[in-house]
Amino acid sequence: MPLYTAGFAAEPAHWFREWEGEFGSLVPVELAPGVLATLVLGHREALKVLHNPDTFPADPSGWQRDVSGDCPVRQMLEGGPTPARTAGVEHARYRGAHVAALVRVDQHMLQAEVERYAVELINAFWTVGSAELRAQFAYPLVLEAVNRLVGVSGDASAALARALAALTEVRDVESAAAGRRLLDSVLYEVVQGKQAAPGEDVASWLLAHEAGLSEAEVVAQLALIYEMAVEPTTALILNTIRLILTDDRLAAALGGSLSTRDALDEALFTDPPLTNWCVRYPHVPQLMDNGVWLPAHQPVIISLADWHSGPAGQADRRGNRSHLAFGAGIHGCPADGIGLLIATIALDQLMDAVPDMRPARKLVWQTSPFHRFLTALPVAFEPVRSLP
Ligand code: HEM
C-alpha cells in the first residue's frame, strides 16, 4: 500500500479505513517505491511498539545498510547523533541533555515574548481584512519562539530562517542535502558563539551539560530541535484554526464549554502535525498478537492520526488526551508543554483579535508519507478600523 502517491495524499483517512478493513491494525506499506515498511494503525499495537524500546529500537543503522543514498526517504530516517535516531545508552545520553536543557526554559518569559510578538504580527494585518495565517502569523511566531529558547538572535536568526526555508522547499534528494548542510553551518556558527559567550539558553545549556557533548553533537541536537519544533508547532496552530473555521459545533462551543486546550486536543487527534511517525526497527523478526510477522530491520511506523477506528472513536473527547500526536514511551516528545504553550497563546491572541475569520480560498496541503501540513491558510474578516 503506497504512502507516497497523490491518491493517498488526497484522501488519507479514506485509505486508512479501507486498509484497516483489509489488513487489520498492521498494514504492509511502501514509503517510496520499493521501500517496504509496516504501518501500525491500532492504538494498542502502537503502544506495544512504543513502550518496548528493546524490541523496537529507534536506531535505523541495520535498515540503512541496504538503502541507497538516493532513496527519497533516507534523509528523513537515517541515523545520527541525536535521541531521535539512537537506542539504549546513547539515546539516554542525548535525551538526558535535551530534557535537562528544556526544563530550564523560563516559561513565563517565553509566554510574555510569544504574546508580545503575536500582538505585533496581528497588528500588521487586522486593519486589512485579510491575512495568510501561515506566512504572516503562525510560522514567524513559532520560529521566533524557538529562536528565543535556543538563544539565536540578530543575523543568525535571518540566516537560520533562510536555511529552514531551503529545507521546506525541498524538491529532490540533492536540494534536501544542500538545505541540511546550510542549516548545520548556521548552527555551527551559533554554537561557536555560545562557546565563546554562553547565555541563558538551550544552546549554552546543551554545551555545558555533563554528557560532554562535542560542538558537532550540539549542532545535531539544535538541528533536531528546529526540525521537531518549528513545522509541527506551526502545523498544530494552523490545523486547529482550520478545524475551528470549518467545524460549527467546535466554533460555537469555543470560549464557552470548550477551552483552547480542548480545541488543540481535538486537532491533535484528528489532524496531528506528524501523521505517520515514531519509526522503529526490530533487530530480529517479531511475531505480533494477530499472527503477523514484522521483518527484522524493516521500518515499523506509527499512524498518529485518529483516522481509523481510533482509541475513542468519534465520541465527545473533552478531557481525553490519549492521542499519540506527541508519541509515547522513552522517545515521547520532551517539549510537548512548550509546543502547547506557544500554540495556546497564538490561538488565544488571534481568536480575541479577529473572532470573525473565515477561510478565503480552497486549502492546499504539502504531504509526505510522514506529515500533512497546510502550505497556506488564507482568511478574510471584517477589518478593524481603529487600533485600541
Ligand atoms: C506541536 C508540536 C510538536 C509535536 C506534534 C511534536 C511531536 C513529537 C513526536 C511525535 C515525537 C516522538 C518521536 C518518536 O517517537 O520517534 C517527538 C520527539 C521529540 N520532540 Fe517534539 N513535537 C512538538 C514540539 C516540539 C518542540 C517545541 C520541541 C523542542 C523545543 C520538540 C523536541 C523534540 C525532541 C528533541 C524529540 C526527540 C525525543 C527522543 O527521541 O527521545 N518537539 N516530538
TrEMBL record:
Per UniProt, the keywords (alphabetical) are: Heme, Iron, Metal-binding, Monooxygenase, Oxidoreductase
Task: Give GO terms: molecular function aspect only.
Answer: heme binding; iron ion binding; monooxygenase activity; oxidoreductase activity, acting on paired donors, with incorporation or reduction of molecular oxygen
Q: Which residues form the signal peptide?
A: none
Query: Family assignment?
Result: Belongs to the cytochrome P450 family.
Q: What name is this protein filed under?
A: Cytochrome P450
